[in-house]
Amino acid sequence: MFVKEMKLLIKYGIELDISGLECKVGYKGDALLKFSSSEQDTIQKIEAFCSRADIEYKISYNKAKATTDIFCVFAADTYKLK
Prior knowledge:
4 strands
């Protein structure tokens, strides 16, 4: 199950320079983590973690907050990133 991977990613992420963390769980069993940071190095480290753990992710820039967001999807078969 993906809960173990989520916990590892959360523990890893909170040690970095993040400005926000959101966790959403859907009724279909899907889960989404969103990390926000103004530090590009932080986003790259989370991206590398996701790549090693085979976690689907998407990176986008939030102009309103001047931060970069990385969305990490668990149980990607029920939730697709656009």
